[in-house]
């Protein structure tokens, strides 16, 4: 089934026991498009992202990536995941091997690349994220921002056609956020298809082609970044953005606060 | 009486009392024990000399071989059972739990008797490969596997969930991720407790004496007991005991070093 959309999500539902986290999501991400998903914690945005590469199994609905149905029980999920890069909030680098081996191990074990080839790809990608000089360090010797850039390089080394980012800067000290966002901006400029769950509104406004606002397991509002972040139509979006952009301005919780 | 002792006075009294008890116990033992008879029975230098070199070249060597073969077999089986405990297939989990509960709940001695008697009965005509060595590896390994399985399972579960997720999202299969990513990390966590298990096995290898062994297959305890009854003197037991300590004390030291290193790495 040919499709111009890299990611297609149709009627997606996900429950954890009685807790309905996703209540019917329909979303497309076109090839080369950068989509930021924003929303309050517990809105289901991370779960949505994790359903795209099936780290969470949807309860109902379909997900297509590059025309392949991820949710098809007969699909080779390992093969599909090779085409999807994922970056986690907690980096999840392999702590027992060096930075270079973090990049070469998956290439060699999963893609079967020869040692020299894998090492070359690793070097190139470490250079892209500006960490060629850390090739022989262990993850624990790096700052959070450096670890996250290595994690991005590790995903890129597999040659993915789409990248998923799950709050990539939320675990970082504020002064380290910029370097990671710069790498992501570079990827976007190179035409990578990206789906980014984030709280970084300036990144969403500047880099995203489209912003999706989620609340309580549903998409409340979506559209061009300038519109959703700049002039949100929906009251819930406005309320959320006020709290994110100027947390100090929030009213003290009154007796009828949620 | 209302005592108005300062903290310094209290500490002095408390410490003084503890030292006094300690010294009193030592003195009582030293005075009451019959040292001449003890020395006669346990510390005959010429008798001890005659034990060498056999006690090292045969007995200690066999103890080490039994321990290592039991440990190797137990490690393989323990890893298998640990993976079964973590399996998504319920019968595997049940089987692993049943195994662990049974073999942790039985005295090692019973299992040795079982291996020596029941296995030849159940499979007539079949020999456990390796003769006595095979039987010991089986007996020790069966017991050790139950303990090691729990250690390994705990080690695997101590590896953060994100590691498996990262590996899977890179396209690793579950099995590949386990081998390339999870187990190498779990391995570091479980090395100290596994070394401890090695110390326990080293001592449990003395149970071999219930299997019936030839002269050349004797390990330290059997060797010491045999020579003690031949010479009607217990010196061989004491020397055998010292041989155990020769290995177990350095091993315990290694365990403490490994634990300290693991604690620092966190």
From TrEMBL, chain A:
Its main location: membrane. Residues 7-241 form the ABC transporter domain. It comes from the Bacteria. It is found in: Cell membrane. Belongs to the ABC transporter superfamily. It catalyses: a polar amino acid(out) + ATP + H2O = a polar amino acid(in) + ADP + phosphate + H(+). It comes from Streptomyces lavendofoliae. This is ABC-type polar-amino-acid transporter. Its EC number is 7.4.2.1. The lineage of its organism: Bacteria, Bacillati, Actinomycetota, Actinomycetes, Kitasatosporales. InterPro entries: AAA+_ATPase, ABC_ATPase_HisP-typ, ABC_transporter-like_ATP-bd, ABC_transporter-like_CS, MetN_ABC_transporter-like, P-loop_NTPase. PROSITE patterns: ABC_TRANSPORTER_1 (PS00211), ABC_TRANSPORTER_2 (PS50893). It is a peripheral membrane protein. GO terms for cellular component: plasma membrane.
From TrEMBL, chain B:
One of its GO terms (biological process) is amino acid transport. Its main location: membrane. It is found in: Cell membrane. InterPro entries: AA_ABC_transptr_permease_3TM, ArtM/GltK/GlnP/TcyL/YhdX-like, MetI-like, MetI-like_sf. SUPFAM superfamilies: MetI-like. Pfam families: BPD_transp_1. The chain crosses the membrane at residues 16-33, 64-84, 105-124, 235-255. Keywords: Amino-acid transport, Cell membrane, Membrane, Transmembrane, Transmembrane helix, Transport. One of its GO terms (cellular component) is ATP-binding cassette (ABC) transporter complex. It is a multi-pass membrane protein. GO terms for molecular function: transmembrane transporter activity. Residues 60-255 form the ABC transmembrane type-1 domain. Belongs to the binding-protein-dependent transport system permease family. HisMQ subfamily. PANTHER family: GLUTAMINE TRANSPORT SYSTEM PERMEASE PROTEIN GLNP, MEMBRANE COMPONENT OF AMINO ACID ABC TRANSPORTER. This is ABC transmembrane type-1 domain-containing protein.
């Amino acid at each position: 089934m040919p499709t111009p959309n890299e990611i297609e999500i149709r009627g997606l539902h996900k429950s954890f026991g009685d807790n309905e986290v996703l209540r019917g999501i329909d979303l497309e991400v076109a090839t080369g498009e950068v989509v930021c998903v924003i929303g309050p914690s517990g809105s289901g945005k991370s779960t949505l992202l994790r359903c795209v590469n099936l780290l969470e199994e949807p309860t109902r609905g379909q997900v297509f990536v590059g025309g392949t149905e991820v949710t098809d029980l007969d699909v080779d999920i390992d093969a599909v995941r090779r085409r999807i890069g994922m970056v986690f909030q907690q980096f999840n680098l392999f702590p027992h091997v060096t930075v270079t081996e973090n990049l070469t191990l998956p290439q060699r074990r999963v893609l079967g690349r020869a040692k020299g080839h894998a090492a070359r790809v690793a070097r190139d990608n470490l250079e892209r994220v500006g960490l060629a000089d850390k090739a022989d360090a262990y993850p624990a010797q790096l700052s959070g921002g450096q670890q996250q850039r290595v994690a991005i390089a590790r995903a890129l080394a597999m040659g993915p056609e789409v990248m998923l980012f799950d709050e990539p800067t939320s675990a970082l000290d504020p002064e380290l956020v910029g370097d990671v966002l710069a790498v992501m901006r570079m990827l976007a400029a190179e035409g990578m298809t990206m789906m980014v769950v984030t709280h970084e509104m300036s990144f969403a406004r500047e880099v995203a082609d489209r912003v999706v606002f989620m609340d309580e397991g549903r998409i409340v509002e979506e559209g061009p970044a300038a519109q959703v972040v700049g002039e949100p139509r929906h009251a819930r979006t406005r309320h959320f953005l006020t709290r994110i952009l100027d947390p100090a301005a929030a009213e003290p919780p009154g007796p009828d606060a949620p | 009486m209302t005592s108005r002792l300062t903290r310094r006075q209290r500490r002095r009294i408390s410490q003084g009392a503890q030292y006094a008890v300690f010294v009193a116990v030592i003195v009582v033992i030293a005075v009451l024990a019959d040292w001449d008879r003890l020395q006669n029975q346990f510390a005959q230098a010429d008798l001890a000399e005659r034990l060498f070199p056999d006690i090292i070249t045969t007995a200690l060597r066999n103890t080490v071989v039994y321990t290592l073969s039991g440990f190797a077999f137990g490690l393989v089986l323990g890893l298998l059972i640990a993976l079964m405990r973590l399996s998504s297939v319920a019968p595997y989990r049940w089987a692993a739990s049943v195994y662990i509960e049974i073999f942790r709940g039985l005295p090692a001695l019973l299992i040795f008797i079982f291996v020596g008697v029941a296995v030849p009965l159940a499979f007539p005509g079949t020999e456990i490969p390796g003769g006595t060595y095979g039987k010991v590896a089986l007996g020790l390994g069966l017991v050790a596997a139950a303990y090691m399985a729990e250690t390994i399972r705990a080690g695997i579960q101590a590896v953060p969930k994100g590691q498996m997720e990262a590996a899977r999202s890179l396209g690793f299969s579950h099995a590949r991720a386990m081998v390339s990513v999870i187990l190498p990390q779990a391995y570091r966590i479980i090395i100290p407790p596994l070394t401890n298990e090695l110390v326990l096995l080293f001592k449990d290898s003395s149970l071999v004496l219930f299997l019936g062994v030839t002269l050349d297959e004797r390990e330290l305890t059997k060797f010491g007991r045999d020579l003690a009854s031949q010479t009607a003197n217990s010196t061989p037991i004491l020397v055998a005991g010292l041989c155990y300590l020769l290995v177990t004390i350095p091993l315990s030291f290694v365990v403490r070093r490994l634990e300290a290193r693991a604690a620092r790495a966190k």
